[in-house]
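[User] At your convenience, examine this fold.
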Amino acid sequence: MIMIYSDEKREVSPEEMGSIMAAYGAYRQALVDAGAFVTGAPLEPTSMATTLSIRDGQRSVQDGPYADTKEQFGGFFMIECADADAALEWAARCPGAHRGVVEVRPVMSTPTA
């Protein structure tokens, strides 16, 4: 999974947003064309987030994201590729790597029943 982090409070002009969206569209199409795309989606801003935890059987629900950081988790691409090096190559092509940070993390294999 390629997780995209950026500063959602950074102001972006409509022209720059158009350029960013075009870059993501091209990136997604490249993943599709290579047969690597599984799924992906942008996320709503952190102001729309709700955090839930259960401690000692009690549910706690709070407005906002889990972590208060400079950069926020803004979206993801689930890809399928041969190995970690290939995943890093795709991550380097992600537009988010140029504006923030992308994290590459394997999805844990789970046994099928």
